[in-house]
Amino acid sequence: MAARLDGEIDFVAGALSSTPEKSLQSGRDLDLPEARNYPTWRAMLEGERALPESDRIDFVSIVTPNHTHFEIAKAFAEAGFHVVCDKPLAISIEQAQELARIASDRKIVFGVTYNYSGSPMIKQARAMVQDGELGKIRKVLVEYHQGWLAERIEATGQKQASWRSDPNLSGGGAIVDIGSHAEQLVRYVTGLEIESLSANVNTFVEGREVDDDINVFLRFEGGAKGVLIASQVCVGQRNDLTLRLWGTKAGLEWRQEQPNELIIKSNDGPEQLYSRGEGYLSKSASDVSRIPPGHPEGFIEGFANVYRSIASAIRSGDSNPIHHDYPDVTDGLKGVQFINAVLESGHNDGAWTRLS
Amino acid sequence: MAARLDGEIDFVAGALSSTPEKSLQSGRDLDLPEARNYPTWRAMLEGERALPESDRIDFVSIVTPNHTHFEIAKAFAEAGFHVVCDKPLAISIEQAQELARIASDRKIVFGVTYNYSGSPMIKQARAMVQDGELGKIRKVLVEYHQGWLAERIEATGQKQASWRSDPNLSGGGAIVDIGSHAEQLVRYVTGLEIESLSANVNTFVEGREVDDDINVFLRFEGGAKGVLIASQVCVGQRNDLTLRLWGTKAGLEWRQEQPNELIIKSNDGPEQLYSRGEGYLSKSASDVSRIPPGHPEGFIEGFANVYRSIASAIRSGDSNPIHHDYPDVTDGLKGVQFINAVLESGHNDGAWTRLS
Amino acid sequence: MAARLDGEIDFVAGALSSTPEKSLQSGRDLDLPEARNYPTWRAMLEGERALPESDRIDFVSIVTPNHTHFEIAKAFAEAGFHVVCDKPLAISIEQAQELARIASDRKIVFGVTYNYSGSPMIKQARAMVQDGELGKIRKVLVEYHQGWLAERIEATGQKQASWRSDPNLSGGGAIVDIGSHAEQLVRYVTGLEIESLSANVNTFVEGREVDDDINVFLRFEGGAKGVLIASQVCVGQRNDLTLRLWGTKAGLEWRQEQPNELIIKSNDGPEQLYSRGEGYLSKSASDVSRIPPGHPEGFIEGFANVYRSIASAIRSGDSNPIHHDYPDVTDGLKGVQFINAVLESGHNDGAWTRLS
Amino acid sequence: MAARLDGEIDFVAGALSSTPEKSLQSGRDLDLPEARNYPTWRAMLEGERALPESDRIDFVSIVTPNHTHFEIAKAFAEAGFHVVCDKPLAISIEQAQELARIASDRKIVFGVTYNYSGSPMIKQARAMVQDGELGKIRKVLVEYHQGWLAERIEATGQKQASWRSDPNLSGGGAIVDIGSHAEQLVRYVTGLEIESLSANVNTFVEGREVDDDINVFLRFEGGAKGVLIASQVCVGQRNDLTLRLWGTKAGLEWRQEQPNELIIKSNDGPEQLYSRGEGYLSKSASDVSRIPPGHPEGFIEGFANVYRSIASAIRSGDSNPIHHDYPDVTDGLKGVQFINAVLESGHNDGAWTRLS
Q1: What is the residue extent of each domain of chain A?
Q2: Spacing of C-alpha A154 from chain mean position
Q3: Which of B223, B266, B224, B329 is nearest to B128 (CA)?
Q4: Which of A208, B149, B310, D336 shows a CA-CA span of 20 to 30 A to D45?
Q5: What is the mean pLDDT of residues D52-73?
Q6: pLDDT tier for residue D180 given thresholds of 50, 70 and 90
Q7: Which chain D residue's Cα is nearest to C31?
């Protein structure tokens, strides 16, 4: 829905499930042309390569369970297709590094769907930090609370919960699923790199095989400090991703559940509530806004913005993510490094651990 | 964007602007096939009628200035096309009645895009009223505040402001543009019909030819009372449509700018905040929800729900609006009656005026 | 509690209930000295007059049912005592005029406890209007919703409900009890005088002898328009007094239930949230703030500010309410005129009625 | 102001500043009787002891800089006076233990003014946890953000900042000043004891001699985990103390800046907003509520509740803090243990440190 929102991207081919039968059925349900409704991703890769170049898909979008990202992305990237991959980019740092290398060698566009960074008011936040309106950043708080895994629903066969709670398929729990979103959001808005971290990794639900609650102290290059919290056992929380920053001059607050607003605070004057769509916003925020202020945009539009930036990069033939403002394979790699550092620190009772 | 959101509706033909040249250019910009990119709506009507029935458009969507709605809608409806028309349905009550008659005679689906009634939490509100959870409704407050017409921007050539502020093109100002949305929202949620009203109709901006601020007392059949306020000179307000109801058992509050929430209040217990997407909601609210709770939906999704209901009616061959839950030509007619009663009462210093 | 908050006012004498026995008992419960614990207000007046001037009470505070305000206030005022009286000042306009005359003749301080105008952020709002920061005021919305009278609790013997619902004791229902607070708040903040009004006066609860819901259109001198709504049948509302104003330059919003905040809106920049206690506020707001920002003040402090201003006037020997910023007998008179005009318009089906 | 609010406590004697001259002057400004307006706390202790027992002060309230708490409290407690002392109770654990011992030996009431635990909705929160409405507590987040020390205002002579930023007078910075409030609030509401902690202790402002930002991981007895954050460099934050808890059944949220509200969340139904003063609240919350719902109470009332509980304990002759629900010398001791553990862990790069 997000990819198609702007009418720039069509859905023309796919391998849509984990078994050939289900894949073909899903394709039919979604009106895929029979010839490009593939039983497996390997068949799809072969089939598309066999087409004249101008008839092939422009990019593949990988939305499979985490443990398969690497293999699929590698195959399509090596074949020269542009790739859009869900986070986490891969399970191991080595895998992620390999994908980054291939993307660079093949000069493809390789996007990673850190969708929250597509939100207009996040673009505004980033612009204000870049313009120095917050001063030097001192403190970062990022939280991501959900409640849907407060009980062991993976044991009941709930599909999403099942694979996400299997460490072999997911690579981890809350840290992978939501913690890595929080990490990328911080890096995107602040431009700061995490130097080291100390993590407290918990599993509250008995019998669960992955973490369901993490708390991380962050040290950034340049001296800023942060706390990142992600939990999936916070009953009653839906998708409560919140970013707060304080610099020497001003503070900033954004809540994913009210994405059209951005709050700016200082010691010198009233709190300011910025609203999406208004004329006083940065160009970067205005460019990704679709409808007038007061007409709320939501999750889908933010996600669509990531796709739109990637489409723009593909069309331009310029894969530099900075020129088109999309999260790319390097962001994906840093995400995998972050996840691994958190799990390592957690296993070492919170020892300070460098990202590498 | 809203019509295409669910992939059920394609954009296949159009007459897209007020002059043939601009129309054709717009169609090319939007990749309309040349053969169905028409210079005028009359050409479009002729062209589509000339096609074999199975190749024709399923419905026409009329999003032109208000004074043209009647003529276009009448022509397509008489030709047997299903129609989707922006509000107000027409300028005069007679025109609206004629469209209602034609729609009934031709057994077509005739939707009117009162888009706010497509919002999931508005469906929830309606369901709760119908289920008696509020008791008997006593008091209704509906407000719609905007600030964008606080100055005479129509004099600067601003396109939207220009035609909306020309009484010959629009049929009225705030009452038509936003007041009629508020009226339909109240009727949709409460199921109550307005019996009579007393209106205070103001024009604050010097030189403006239409009203820019209205305040209306409402008497409903069955004894409920209400206040409807719509203004476009409330500086700093964006699209602040708010509905509050109080019955004998509970009260209800919905704000368009936070559309994923619905507040229910009673004298007996804590205030309750209902959230879109949750399992405890009515079937009607759940059916029009696309993504999980906490992942905000917005204006586009609500609008898309109106289109989806209309598409469902068209596909089913059953034009009964109640079966498919869409605002139809009768709602459009009542809207025109409301607008006319407000303007009449306003001219008569607020005299109580019956709707007819 | 409010009067004593700043340690400037002591409670030294009283006649505390409607019968001599209950009065004396209440006085004992509150540790009043036996000699000044009076059985009736007449005994109190006599007793205090008999004391040497320097030993007498400085002022009397009248917090009795409405129908007794006039008689008691008149007696104390004529005897030269300063008076603090609850609103409404009196039942009839003639009574209120007489009290205003006596206060003027005797040069006494005569305060009326419109307590909400004592709130710091209301002082800030008034200062901003006076300084022209909102431009010329166009539109005023003031609402006061309560739910405690949604059922006929006066029939159950609830004490507050009983006398307030008896027209002979109260002079009216929602209009008197809360509507008059709303009216004074508007006048205090905007400085605008109501010229005429059209009122819709309702009684929703069967068997009730006074109004429980009023809706009023306001025309102000100078061209501003307004809507005032007060209801006591809004189930789930506690004490929801809200003031919104829009001028040519900015809008303003204050909610009594969040009294430490004031929102300022414009078309040109972000919404601004002003907070009590901050250094950027007006002198008038800062002067009545007691504790640092972020340490919430509430209802009692606002009420105490009215007492403090009155105490300051009494000490200074200068009864000019403008010098000491307290609601006085003239405000009380205007309140009675407003109440009477609303009830009159209501009886005449909403006919526009001038205040006089 | 808080102590006097209910008329149960009079201010009858004092030593009110750090030098005899200033002390005497302050006493005169506050209308203290000359005979009990003392130049020093030692003179006050002597003077009060010399009075007949029935004429003495009932208790002493110690609101001096932190490093003097121990000496003064010890002297008054040993002389058998009841004591109310600001937090922190003392600088060292040994001092705090000695005060606890003396209080126990002398059977005096020894209150510590953790004022936020006096807030009605905090009592409600505690009652709901005790009644099992949240299930078993898993996760605790408590934050306390202020911005007033974002620059080195202690260097400008600002009085509050000066002594609080001098480690010899204060014993620490943010951890002492606000972190210890957060710690007590968690213990009070949850009933959980902190077992060990890992702290990140920062000083952001150059030249500052104490911490101005702390982040602490908490492990509670019984398995709950928590994060406590306190910072005084968060520009634009006023007094942003927030407590969030999640148990197996429900979550809870309270914000000091909106103290009349308590939010309860679950996975099964709508979010619930509890309001102070309502009939559905716990007895403990109702008992400390003064005015009707919707009439906001604030900081002073919460503080007054601590004084009222202490006054009740003193009058009853029963110093058991549980019977009268006030924070006592044991809470003060735990606070000092917490402060010392945080500073120790901080010096050891976040090593997990047990409280003792």
Answers
A1: 117-281+333-354
A2: 23
A3: B266
A4: D336
A5: 96
A6: very high
A7: D7
Q: Is A236 on the interface with C (CB under 8 A)?
A: no
Residue A318 has what pLDDT? 87
D118-294+329-354: CATH architecture: 2-Layer Sandwich (3.30)
CA distance A139 to A226: 5
Residues 243-272 of chain A with CB under 8 A from chain C are 264, 268-272
Enter the tokens of residue A176: 């992978």
Q: Among partner residues C257, C275, C294, which is closest to D296 by beta-carbon distance?
A: C257
Q: Give the pLDDT confidence of A64-110 residue by residue, as tens digits.
A: 999 999 999 999 999 999 999 999 999 999 999 999 999 999 999 99
Q: Please, are residues B62 and B69 in contact by the beta-carbon 8 Å criterion?
A: yes
Topology of domain A117-281+333-354 in CATH is: Dihydrodipicolinate Reductase; domain 2 (3.30.360)
CB contact under 8 A, B271 and C141: no
Report the residue from C30, C257, C293 with minimal CB separation from D294: C257
D35 Cβ under 8 Å from any chain C Cβ = no
D26 interface with C at CB cutoff 8 Å: no
**Other C-beta atoms lying within 10 Å of the C-beta of residue C329:** 28
Tokens of B78: 């008489």
Which chains form contacts with chain B, at 3 or more CB pairs under 8 Å?
A: A, C, D
Could you read off the pLDDT of A179-203 as tens digits, one per residue?
A: 999 999 999 999 999 999 999 999 9
Q: How far is CA A201 from the centre of its chain?
A: 21
Measured between CB atoms, does B234 come within 8 Å of chain C?
Answer: yes
Task: Provide block-wise average pLDDT over 10 residues at a time, chain B (356 residues).
Answer: 91 95 95 95 98 96 96 98 98 98 97 98 98 98 98 91 90 96 98 98 97 98 98 98 98 98 97 98 97 98 97 91 92 98 97 94
The 10 Å Cβ neighbour count of residue C62 is 20
Dihedral angle over CA of C79, C83, C89, C92, nearest 10: 10
This model of the complex carries an ipTM of: 0.96
CATH 3.30.360.10 fits B119-293+329-354, yes or no: yes
Which chains touch C (3+ CB pairs under 8 A)? A, B, D
Q: In chain D, which residues have their Cβ closer than 8 Å to the Cβ of B268?
A: 280
User: Cβ(B142)–Cβ(C143) under 8 Å?
Assistant: no
Question: How many interchain CB pairs under 8 A, C with D?
Answer: 86
Q: How far is C32 from chain D (nearest CA, A)?
A: 12
Question: Residue C212 pLDDT more than 90?
Answer: yes
Nearest CA in chain D to A226: D215
Residues C31, C45: Cα–Cα separation, whole Å: 20
- How near does any CA of chain B get to the CA of A208, in Å? 23
Task: Name the DSSP letter for residue A42.
Answer: H
Chain D hits for C4, Cβ within 8 Å = 4, 7
Q: Which residues from D are below 8 Å from A352, CB to CB? A: 349-350
Asked whether the whole model's pTM tops 0.95, one would answer yes
The per-residue pLDDT for D280 is: 97
* A139: contact with D, CB 8 A cutoff: yes
Task: Look at strands B59-62 and B82-85 and give their pairing.
Answer: parallel
Q: How confident is the model at residue D318 (pLDDT cuts 50, 70, 90)?
A: confident
State which residue of chain D sits closest to C11, comparing Cα positions. Answer: D7
Q: How many Å apart are CA A312 and CA A325, to the nearest integer?
A: 10
Give C79 to chain D, closest Cα distance, Å: 30
Listed in order, strand segments (DSSP E) in D256-321 are: 261-265, 271-275
Q: Is the pLDDT of residue C243 over 90?
A: yes
Tell me which CATH code domain C120-291+330-354 carries. 3.30.360.10
Average pLDDT, chain D: 96
C220, C224, C227, C230 alpha-carbon torsion, rounded to 10°: -50
pLDDT at A319: 82
